[in-house]
Design goal:
Three copies of one chain form a homotrimer. Chain A has 152 residues and is α+β, with helices and mostly antiparallel strands. Chain A is 29% helix and 28% strand. In chain A, strand 5, helix 3 and strand 6 form a beta-alpha-beta unit.
């Protein structure tokens, strides 16, 4: 099944890549690897999930934020590989979670990104991962996700 | 000398890879590189070092935690490269240290991982590294280590 | 134009690589990629920018710190690729900013590194990037920058 068909089945729409908020690009390809910039949970450039896990935003909202970051990551990927069928493996994702010192459920939050990638790409979507708790993130975002992807 | 002999000399036993606590895999190979998921200081799935450096866990414990994360990283590596003699270089490690805003000894903590990798792999074990201080880590872990490894 | 000429135009002097403060090396090459260790804002081994963004150091100082980290990253790169004209792409940088939970301008701070790399390398200097807020950094540094670089 093509990735476009799968995206339609899942009801996932990949937007245009967000314009980076600073002096960098959404993604860079080197050989068969694409390094994707840290993605925030934005829609049309507007931050959707702001706050600190364990303080003023809950795990369900954090998980939704991580899912949105992953969608934006695929938008960033498309700036260098227009056809997502050429993805051979999601290699690694890093999930940055803005949270208090007491918060311990970073893994649940980042699952919002991991589960979407597996739903879209199947076996090719299974990836290595780190989930870590941050003091804060750009613009006050609750979550930020970066990715390394292997392509044909 | 084979890596297995060296591990025996050092008294290091590499366990089975910990089952990831979420929707990802322990390690992914792409070309000659293996990206290894962030490892926690667990034994048989039980977290051994919990807490915040500078608050309720000291540098010696943090260093032991980092060493244990590195051992678990080699277990994760074995899920994709069963023979550790095929490691040609530990390329990069990132050491995530859960700590207070006043804590400044992240490098000493992460040495627990770096020194073990050099003891095991010799020249092939010398790596690039970043050590950084986190607000908190999954399950309340004191340290988390991720690795990029080059293999034959 | 050669990179050396461009550095001279910009008044940028790349120092000798700082001796790592622990058991690792400044940079490791694997294939055409160089992974560069997290760099602190030091001159001759002395930390120049200490503190926490949003608390005791301002965005302008943080930006200057990020720029200095990038210069030290090029020094680290030279330990494995002596001629910087062989850089074909700055692939990815990660900017670690020591900051309070209220701080949201990590992107502005890390621009200090990104803008210098683009000034030096032009199109080859445009990179993917993540900017994140840390609880604290080694030695109390305000900023730490790591890089992945593609070389001939």
């Amino acid at each position: 099944m093509s990735i476009e068909t799968r995206l339609a089945e899942l009801g996932v729409v990949i937007p245009q890549a967000a314009k980076p908020v600073a002096a960098y690009v959404p993604a860079v390809r080197t050989g068969n690897l694409v390094f994707i910039s840290g993605q925030l949970p934005t829609i049309n450039g507007e931050l959707q999930y702001r706050g600190t896990l364990g303080h003023d935003i809950d795990v369900a909202q954090g998980t939704a934020a991580a899912r949105l970051c992953a969608i934006n990551g695929l938008a960033a990927l498309r700036t260098v590989v227009s056809d997502l069928n050429r993805v051979t493996r999601i290699v690694k994702i890093t999930g940055f979670v803005s949270c208090t010192q007491e918060f311990t459920q970073q893994s649940k939050v980042v699952n919002g990104a991991s589960e979407l990638l597996q739903a879209i790409f199947g076996e090719r979507g299974t990836h290595a991962r780190s989930s870590i708790g941050m003091s804060s993130l750009p613009l006050g975002a609750a979550v930020e996700i970066e990715m390394v992807v292997e392509v044909e």
